[in-house]
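Course assignment 3, question 2. Fill in each field.
Student: A.L.
Task: Predict the tertiary structure for the chain below.
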Amino acid sequence: MKVTLFITCIVDMFQADVGKATVEVLERLGCEIDFPMGQVCCGQPAYNSGYVKESKEAMKKMIATFENAEVVVTPSGSCATMFKEYQHIFHDDPIWRPRAERLAAKTYELTEFIVNVMKVEDVGAKLNGVATYHPSCHMTRLLGVKDAPMTLLQNVEGLRFEPLPNAHNCCGFGGTFSVKMGNISEQMVDEKVDSTERTGADFLIGADGGCLMNIGGRIERRGKKVRVMHIAEVLNSR
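Answer field:
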C-alpha cells in the first residue's frame, strides 16, 4: 500500500524523531511512503482562533497537495480531525466540498490505520518498563479513535500498563488556550502530571504531539523522572 504522510507542524519543527519512527514502522509493515513537499499547516491554529477566511487558503493548499494520495496517514489525532473538518468548513462551496470529502474519507491517524485498515495488532515492538497512556481530547472525542492505541501498546513486549487516573481530563494544551489562558492551563497540566506520578510509570505515552509537548515540559520543570514518548516511538522500539 502506498501511504502519503501528513507529518504536521509540531512533528516537523519539534519532534522529528516521531516522524522518523512513523516512517520506519509503516515501512516495516510493508508500506511505500510518499512525502509531498508542498504540505503546510493544516490551518487548525488560525481556524480555532477565529481566522476562518485566512485559514481556508491553507486548507485549500492541503486539499490540493494530498488530492492524489491513495491514503493519508498522520501521527496526530488532532490534525487528522482537522482534515475531517474540511468537508464541514467548505459545506457551501460546490468546488471545494467534494474535494474535501474525498480527503476526509482517506485520512487516518497512525494507530487507526495500522489496526483498522492494515489489520495489524502487533508490530513487533519491545520496550521494558511501566507505562501509562494519555488519551488526547481531539483524538478520542472528535476523531473517535479510542481502542487502536491500546490494542497496539498491549502487544509491546516488556511493557506493563497502569491506568492513568482521570485520563479523560484535558492536559491543558488546547493549542492557543495554553498561551491565552496560561494560569488555568498550568493547573490542568499539573493535575495530569500528578496523575501520571501516582501510576509509578516510567513512560507517559500519547498520540498527539501538542499534548506531549505540554505535559513533557511540565514534567521537566517539576523535575519528575518520567519519559514522555509518542506512540510512534514506542511502536518503533526494538
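Instructor remarks: Strands lie at 2-5, 32-34, 71-74, 107-109, 126-133, 157-161, 203-206, 227-230. The mean pLDDT is 95.
Grade: pending
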